[in-house]
Amino acid sequence: MSDLPGRRPPPLPDKSPTLRDQIDNLAHLGRLVAQIWRTSRFLTAASIGLRIIAALQPVAVLYAAKLIVDEVVRLSAVTPPGPGILDWFEAGLLNSVIGFLLLELALVLANDLISRATGLVDSILSELHSNQVSVELMQHAARLDLQHFESAEYQDRLERARRQAAGRNALLSQIFGQAQDIITVMTLAAGLFIYAPWLILLLPLSFIPSVWGESRFNSLAYMLSRWRTPERRELEYLRHIGASAETAKEVKLFGLGDYLVTRFKGLAHQIFLENRRVAILRAGWGAAFAAIASLAYYAAYAFIVWRTITGVFSLGDLAFLSGSFLRLNGLFQKILLGFTQIAGQSMYLDDLFSFFEIEPTVLPPPAPAAFPVPIRSGIVFDNVGFKYPETDHWVVRNLSFTLPAGETLALVGENGAGKTTIVKLLTRLYDPSEGRITIDGVDLRQMAPADIHAHVGVIFQDFIRYSFSARDNIGVGRIEAREDQDRIDTAAEQSLAKGVIARLPKGYDQQLGRLFKQGRDLSGGEWQKVAIARAYMRDAELIILDEPTAALDAKAEAEVFARFKGLAIGKTAVIISHRFSTVRMADRILVLDNGAILEAGTHEQLVALKGRYAELFELQAAGYR
Ligand SMILES: Nc1ncnc2c1ncn2[C@@H]1O[C@H](COP(=O)(O)OP(=O)(O)OP(=O)(O)O)[C@@H](O)[C@H]1O
């Protein structure tokens, strides 16, 4: 499923998962229980132990009640020893009945304690489990490729998995509760079987219709929710742009508030109508099936009453059997519905676990080559071609050029020419679809992506504005050195961020961004200086600045690049900029057009060539005259 334009969902999905699919989904329960066990062995064991004790309680209470009734019936036939209760006591006639009453009281009190303790253990366990799932999700997402994050299908899967991380906690209690109910049913059924074996046959009559109905509606609800993931993501997105700090300026000035609300309402209403239809169907059929269950119960009850009247059963037996049957009937339904609900929930688990099955494709080779330090000869693009996954369009094709070690290369070209894509290929965020990229003769595919990233300092045009302190905003450039104040100082100095930080009330400790209280927002250019410092935190062999200076004023950009040139001596560097004042400083310039090289050379050579570069340069220079 993907976000295809013009996609029209059917009113209700008609094909439910097959029985086989449902059984396969049940296998996910094993993974879930293993995950819960990993979360806390002690709490999992405690929850199971408490439930086993609780499971035996109903039959014990019913049996105590039977003993009380039978004793009362016996005592009512005895000649009273005297007029007062004391006479009964003294005669020792009340000993048994008092013992039975105390037994029942103790059982009821114990049950209350146990169920509270189970609730407590489950709620703690479920919070721990939900944290555990979130951590595992984040860890797994961090392993995946950039291509996954740039695909709508992946975003849908991640969104579904994320919902499951928080939403499946009830399942934990449900699975354990189910096991508890099964034990209770077995003990009650054993009692019932001893008195009236064929009564048990009446039970399935009452629950089979409900089970069928539940399983059908569970599937429907799941299919709807799955089908609607893109719309739900759109709702989330609309909610975000309608009310967030980054978007407030533009939304206000363009007067988009009402438009966003209307769009949100329309989409939310469609989803509401579908959900309401399923809810109404479910409630209607549920009521009908519950009536069938009650009929079965009363048929059995009438039979037990008749047997008691005819003297086959005692009054105590009547109390025990009708109590057992009532509970069994309820429990049987609960268990079977529980199974279908668990099966229904396990469909959602598929959303969670199938996310964990997505594997990265840009992988280190079995015996990776080390990134050359220093780079001696240079970087070579050898007939490189690249298409983004699931697209047919060659973004770059037949691209061959050499970037000699220690030189600065500038990439110039119109929007969409493929400049950022070249950076993604150079940093092995993607592998080329054809051709190869080598550093000192070694194919990038022979190196581990993490090793490449450790030796490259890149700042993209859409760098992150972290809502962290100024220090951490620079420190994240080299996370292991985030406490190294000298290094951070030097990086800030080199990127001109030092001046920005000096003006902050709390200096390096100043919280940046508007997300948190006491946060200080920076101007676009100030943010860029902070971001560029991140690239300087690394001992990078290769420095890449992908248009991160667009918001800098002309003076600051000239200064940033003068420093960049100074620092890049001996380092290989790539810069992407639309400003020719910056580009001209590069040792070599590539002019790209539609993913191919149109012109290449130094600034002077390209101006002399009087081609596209000279034309664009003139155009920009004329703007300043
Ligand atoms: N993740 C993606 N999936 C599919 N196509 C993409 C993806 N990213 C970029 N493209 C397409 O690849 C082409 C080149 O994009 P790229 O970002 O490399 O251009 P650019 O030269 O850096 O442009 P700009 O100057 O606007 O930053 C564009 O046509 C763009 O639509």
Automatic annotation (TrEMBL):
GO terms for molecular function: ATP binding. The chain crosses the membrane at residues 279-298. Pfam families: ABC_tran. Keywords: ATP-binding, Membrane, Nucleotide-binding, Transmembrane, Transmembrane helix. It is found in: Cell membrane. It is a multi-pass membrane protein. Residues 45-344 form the ABC transmembrane type-1 domain. Residues 379-619 form the ABC transporter domain. PROSITE patterns: ABC_TM1F, ABC_TRANSPORTER_1, ABC_TRANSPORTER_2. PANTHER family: ATP-BINDING CASSETTE SUB-FAMILY B, HAEMOLYSIN SECRETION ATP-BINDING PROTEIN. Belongs to the ABC transporter superfamily. This is ABC transporter ATP-binding protein/permease. It comes from Devosia salina.
